[in-house]
Description:
The chain is mainly alpha-helical. The chain has helices spanning about 10-20, 25, 40-45, 65-70, 90-100, 135-145, 155-160; strands spanning about 55, 80, 105-110, 120-125.
Amino acid sequence: MDFDGVLHPVxxxxxxxxxxxxxxELRYAPDKQLFRWLDRLVQMLDQYPDVAILVHSGWRTMxxxxxxxxxxxxxxxxxxGSTSKSMQRYAGIEQVLSRIGTTDFVILDDAxxxxxxxxxxxxxxxxELGLSEPGIQTRLxxxxxxxxDDLATHDxxxxxSTPSC
Length: 165
């Protein structure tokens, strides 16, 4: 999962950079500029305890895994790691999925240029609307309601993944 353009507008990060605030300061700021749509994801995943979260966001290059986990708040227990910092997004996702043997997944991201064209697993968000967009919620819900039979459970995913820092 990406953070910028999914859990908050890309412009919120641009404002943060301009103001010179740290990620930690902005994450816990009362105005909740970042992660403003995290609650929507929490609600959507509530009935699906086997869904795990792999972070491929650019945030993985400036945060350690324990911080990425912390940013996910109520979804922290679903965090199973991040993709390699040295790999492009899709290649990193493929590497992790191959290692754990999972073929049932979706990718939430606003940066469509990072992925193969017409990738059915990509749920491409609008950079300023992210998960707040009803159409995106509908696509995610459709996947949640119709998982493939070979989906690795959260526990299998965690057991087969190696922590990265």
